[in-house]
Each structure stands twice: as structure tokens, then as C-alpha cells.
């Protein structure tokens, strides 16, 4: 059954979501997109039309909305007749948009954990601070809410569940590795909103190890990974959303997240952080003006969506999952490889936006078919991973597994 | 004859000026200090009283003034009966303060070239853009205006003139070398106002070579210098005020300025500059606020005056002057070595502020004695250097010369 979609947000990921929804409008129905700046939504829809991506003659309409205003979002849901909201706006608005979905009884999908602008790195598990407090209300109202359904978190949660279900009796560790071996040609840029990007690395690095939360500093724990396609890459243990739900669902496994960084990135990050320029707390200028330094850094850096045209190279994101099967040690690496240039040619966005934007559309398609219409709040690993990986393979993100030194395409 | 002094500014250099004026109040008379924030002036005077530095029972008084308002400065000059204004406020106010001195007919001393907030690195010679346009008016009114009378510019201009007068018939080159081999123990800090400090290095590097202005990028031309006390240090050709007057006064000599930088400073500077954080042009934040990035960097960095208590090590600033005498090649290095800790113990400021703040007081003392009361506008090398170097030696900044491998104290 067709389900109309309302996309919230108008950044690089929203552009991918809009293209993918349009390509699959035969399943999804009317497509609406809303953000603070309607012109940004219009630009995205123009790009969809330009690529001839829209498969039906259903609505393809832009709106302005302040997504921190739940009532305004609820009114827009009513007005558009949306049945699924794909929220890919700033993580600061997540709970406001979820409230609007609970209020109006429609499905909710996001790709990142909620954050409050003035708080960095709250106590683990992070989902318990905002999302899981709304579990009961989602269940009472029969609202399907799929949390963290981007690539990481999202697809990597499904990879973990798939690897465990498919290859082992018992899981011992889940190591998620995210490598962007692409090049944007700029002196420095973040691949998505700098305000969110840097916040990931300015707080404590939480991991779940030996049945408890452990904490480290960013760039304290590094490891070289030998990976398919991208080769040997150095990645550092980082805090990340999916660690916080996977640890709850697989408490006997060690759960860690590793993000790849080059020396140049680390140097720039270290300089900015040590000077205090990544702070979300306002400073007072000599002239009296109050300013949040991180917002100024954001304004100085290239807009992540501007990187797409010249981005080349590949990403490799996957899960190294270790456990036992019939008493034997078993180890698999389930992964995807994406190409920046191919992403740009298809949807006008770079590979990081592509890997983040395709999965929530796959989730929406599974809600529309009923396969993922859980009528309660779920993290991705709490859903059957197979239909998800199958749809992902169909709409642009293949799944491979490396096992015993051999790489095999699964979906 | 005693001459009352009005100090404009309340930063680290102003603190040194206030202490040194107080120590020499038997020659200088009443001492007044004014800045936008009167409390900062009061704090400086409290430090003067605490050290028991004030030699007389003359006035030692703080005032509030907006130094960009010439009329307000003129009114304060009239009110205080000041006969010499020592301007060590931001370089942005210089011409406003000079106008007030011309208006009221009192002597003017500054330590840096005038700058307009929205312009970086104007066309050479820099003094011709603002200061020298007021030469005729100073002469008409009989106003003594000593430009750039800090250490560099200032003492190094006197060193150049002294070296040429004393040791050669003809000058071929003047290389000014400024090395701070001290350590403040912070991750990163500038030794004076970051807004002015960084502006020195974001523009074109002008030098006067082979009878014309040459231009380079910052950090493009580096050279190792073997110097007294501080040893071998790497310094980079930089734009600096004194090059612009020395080139006019010694057009047949090559005139260059070299500033010492460690790799860490260059790295931080390069990151901030390449990202655009050293820009004086406002950027617009996502929320609509307009902000000058450089002012945010300034707000994040330590206040230069806060570095003083923990600053250790020495500075070495001098002029390598080459020429001929009786047909023979001759080469001398005239220099000063200052110690951060000694400066702090004497006047509560670090060595960079000390070397910048003592010279304008020496100049004021020479105006009071009449030796430097030129009744027109002068750059420091246009004044007799000997009485200046003599007073400097008496009040805290000795002069040495290295010639033929031997170091000798001159003053």
C-alpha cells in the first residue's frame, strides 16, 4: 500500500532521500520536503526533476517549517497527508519531529541520535536520554518509529544482527569500521554538518567492553585495519550512536566503533579543539557580542553539499563480528563499498550523504510494504535485517561479506 | 622640565608604560591612563602602587575614554593637562589620537602603524597611507610626533641608524631579526593582541630589496640565524612597520624584517588561516548572526597579559647591518636580550610587552628633556639614537653589539 512521505531537512542527505523517494514513488506515493528554508527544498526538487527521477505523477512539493516546533510539524503532516516522516534534519530537532509523529499517529524514521544544542556527549546509553523515554507512548499509539536508520547507525546495526543470526551461535564482539578513502580536494571540510560532525569527537569515547561502559579520549586508541577495496587504513575508536543500542541488545558482546582519520584531519581537529573553537558554549567578544565558536567554524568551512561535484574515491563501512559457531571461533566482516563519483552522477550528492540517505528510504519502503511496520519504537537491529539488506541492494547499497579471506556479494 | 603624560590603552604594554612612567615621574610629572574600560586602568595603577614604583606624589589617575573619538581624547588632554600622549592602545585608534594631539598641540608617541579595521596590508610604504599625510600639520602646529617608538618598530630603527652612523660610510642591508625564545606553557597564545598579531602575517610580506618593493607570502622565505644567548633560531621574512620608514630613509640599502616562529606556531596559524578563521571580513552564521572570525579566535585565545606569570626564557631582537667603511666590508649585529621572568618581577608583564613598553617611555623622557622635542613628525631613525639608547640602558633595555665574533655592551 502506498504511503505518502514527508522529508524533514534540506541538506546533502535530504537530497539523496528525495531522489530515492522519487525513484520509488510507485511504492511511496506523494513526496513532500520541508525545512526552515523553503528555497533549499525547491533546489532539491529541481535536481530530482532534472534527473527525471520521479517515477509517478504524484505530489513533489516543498514546504517551509520550523522543525523545532512540534505543532508546526504536526500541522504540516496533517496538511500533506504524510504517513511516514523521514527526518534527516539537524539532530537537534529529532525529538520535536518525533513528538509530531506521535501526536498525529504517523511513522517516524531518523538517522542520528537526538542532541540538545548545549550538551555534548551525555551519559550512556545515549538512546535512553531522549528516544527510549518515548517507547511506551509509541507503543500505546501504535506508532512505528525506526531510530538511527542511516548507514552508521542503521545499516551497520542490521549487519551486526545479520552476521550474528547467520554465522554464529554466540557473539563475542562487534567492531564497526567506517572508512572514507575519498578525496574532496579542499584544504579541510567535514562530510556532513560540521556542528554535528565535530561534536561526535569532542566528547568522551564510550565503548561497551567486558560488560561495562568504558571511556577514552578521542584519538587515544587507534588501529590499522586491512579492508576490502580501500586497503589498510588507520581508524580511531570513537563514540557513535549504534554502540549504545547494540550494547543493550547484545550485552555479552564487546561493541566498539572505529572511524578512519588521516593525519591532516587530526591535526586540524586538534588545533581547533585545543584553541576552543569547537566549543558549543558561547564566548563574549571584546565588543560584547556573544558567539558560539563552533557555529563560526561551521560558517567558515565548505558546505558539505558543495563537495559533491569534485569528490572522488570510495567509502568502506562494515562490521567485523566475532563469535562462535558449534564451539568453533568464527569471524566475518559484513560491509558496503560506495563510490563518491557514482553517487554524484546518480543523485547529485557525495558518497557520505549517499550512504546515509539511501537507508532511511529503504526503511520507509519496508514500512509501506508492512514488513517493518512495527507499530512501536525500534532500533534497526531489532528488525529483520534480510528484507532491509535486500531492498538496499536493489536501490543502490550492496552488501558483501568477507569470510575466511574470501569476499562474496550477498545482496 | 617636567611634562605630564597621558597613556592611552590598558593592555600588557600599557602596564609596562605606566610602571616606567611612574618610576621616572621625577622627570615626567603627572601620570594619567585612559582606556575604554576604566577598571583596566585602575588595575594597572594598583599594580604600580603595589610595586611602590611611583617616585613622586604627583597624579596617578585612571580615566575612561573612547579613543576612536578624537574630540573626547582632546577633551581628556585638556582636562588632565597632559603634554605628552603615549598611545599604546589598539593600532586602530592611532590617527584618532594623533588628531587629538594636533588639535591640542601636545606631543604624540605611538608604537605601531595605524590600521583600519577592515583593511589588511595596504600599499607600501605603509606610513604614507595615514601618518605621513599629517606631517605638514604637525610641523605647522609645532607638534612633536614620534612614530613607531616601541621596540620593533622603534629601538630597531635607532639600532639601524646607530650602526650606520657609527660603523660605516655606506649601508648595504638592514636585516631586523626578532626572536622570542621564551615559553608561556599554553597550547597556543599570541604575545600581544591576536587581532593585530595575526594581521601582521595574513597580508603580503613586503621588503625593500635592490631599490624596490618586493612581495612574498608569509612563511615563504625562511632562514636560520645564529644569535647571541638564544642560539640558532629559524625566522621568516615578514611584513613589518619599520621596513616602510627605513626604506624611505635608506633607499640604497636592502631592508628586511625576520620574525622567529616555531613549527607549532606555523601549524596553528596555517590551519586557522586556511580555514578562514583569521579573516577580518564578517561571515554569516546559519542562524543569521554576522561575526568576524578573527574576533572569535581572539576571544578563544588566552589574554596576552595572562601569560606573564608563567613566562620564562629570553628574547633577542636586533639589526644585522652590512655596509662598507673605508672600502672594507663591515657587518655588525646591534641587539638587546630581555628576560620574561625579570620583566614580570619588575612590572608584572612578560618580556614582549616589556620590550614594547619601555621605549616609548624613554622617548617621552627625551621629549621632556628637550633632546627629542622635534616639534614635527619623525620616525625613530630620524632622531639621534645615542641619547635614546643611553636612556634605554638606564631604564631596563641594554644595547649590545656583536662585531667580528665579539659581543660588547654599549649602553
From TrEMBL, chains A, B:
Residues 5-146 form the Saccharopine dehydrogenase NADP binding domain. Residues 150-396 form the Saccharopine dehydrogenase-like C-terminal domain. It comes from the Bacteria. Gene3D superfamilies: Dihydrodipicolinate Reductase, domain 2, NAD(P)-binding Rossmann-like Domain. InterPro entries: NAD(P)-bd_dom_sf, Sacchrp_dh-like_C, Sacchrp_dh_NADP-bd. This is Saccharopine dehydrogenase.
Amino acid at each position: 500500500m502506498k504511503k505518502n512521505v514527508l522529508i524533514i531537512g534540506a541538506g546533502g542527505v535530504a537530497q539523496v532521500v528525495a531522489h530515492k523517494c522519487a525513484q520509488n514513488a510507485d511504492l511511496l506515493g506523494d513526496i513532500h520536503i520541508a525545512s526552515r528554508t523553503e528555497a533549499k527544498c525547491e533546489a532539491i526538487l529541481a535536481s530530482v526533476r532534472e534527473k527525471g527521477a520521479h517515477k509517478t505523477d504524484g505530489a513533489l512539493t516543498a514546504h517551509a517549517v520550523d522543525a523545532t516546533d512540534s505543532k508546526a510539524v504536526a500541522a504540516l503532516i496533517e496538511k500533506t497527508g504524510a504517513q511516514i516522516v523521514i527526518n534527516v534534519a539537524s539532530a537537534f530537532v529529532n525529538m520535536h519531529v518525533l513528538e509530531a509523529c506521535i501526536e498525529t499517529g504517523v511513522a517516524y524514521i531518523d538517522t542520528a541520535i537526538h542532541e540538545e544544542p548545549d550538551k555534548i556527549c551525555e551519559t550512556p546509553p545515549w538512546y535512553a536520554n531522549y528516544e527510549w523515554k518515548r517507547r511506551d507512548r509509541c507503543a500505546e499509539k501504535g506508532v512505528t518509529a525506526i531510530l538511527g536508520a542511516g548507514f552508521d547507525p542503521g545499516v551497520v546495526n542490521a549487519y551486526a544482527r545479520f552476521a550474528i543470526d547467520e554465522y554464529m551461535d554466540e557473539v563475542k564482539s562487534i567492531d564497526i569500521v567506517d572508512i572514507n578513502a575519498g578525496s574532496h580536494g579542499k584544504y579541510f571540510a567535514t562530510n556532513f554538518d560540521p556542528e554535528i560532525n565535530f561534536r561526535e569527537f569532542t566528547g568522551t569515547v564510550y565503548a561497551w567492553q567486558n560488560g561495562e561502559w568504558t571511556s577514552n579520549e578521542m584519538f587515544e586508541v587507534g588501529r590499522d585495519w586491512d579492508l576490502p577495496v580501500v586497503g589498510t587504513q588507520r581508524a580511531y575508536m570513537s563514540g557513535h550512536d549504534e554502540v549504545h543500542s547494540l550494547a543493550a541488545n547484545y550485552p555479552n558482546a564487546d561493541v566498539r566503533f572505529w572511524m578512519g582519520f588521516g593525519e591532516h584531519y587530526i591535526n586540524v581537529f586538534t588545533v581547533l579543539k585545543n584553541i576552543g573553537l569547537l566549543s558549543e558554549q558561547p564566548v563574549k567578544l571584546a565588543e560584547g557580542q556573544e558567539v558560539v565558536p563552533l557555529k563560526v567554524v561551521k560558517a567558515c568551512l565548505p558546505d558539505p553539499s558543495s563537495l559533491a561535484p569534485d569528490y572522488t574515491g570510495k567509502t568502506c563501512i562494515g562490521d567485523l563480528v566475532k563469535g562462535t559457531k558449534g564451539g568453533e571461533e568464527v569471524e566475518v566482516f559484513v560491509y558496503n563499498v560506495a563510490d563518491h563519483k557514482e553517487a554524484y552522477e546518480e543523485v547529485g550528492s557525495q558518497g557520505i550523504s549517499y550512504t546515509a540517505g539511501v537507508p532511511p528510504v529503504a526503511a520507509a519502503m519496508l514500512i509501506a510494504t508492512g514488513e517493518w511496520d512495527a507499530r512501536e519504537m525500534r532500533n534497526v537491529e531489532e528488525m529483520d535485517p534480510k528484507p532491509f539488506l535486500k531492498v538496499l541492494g536493489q536501490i543502490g547499497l550492496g552488501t558483501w561479506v568477507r569470510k575466511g579471506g574470501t569476499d562474496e556479494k550477498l545482496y
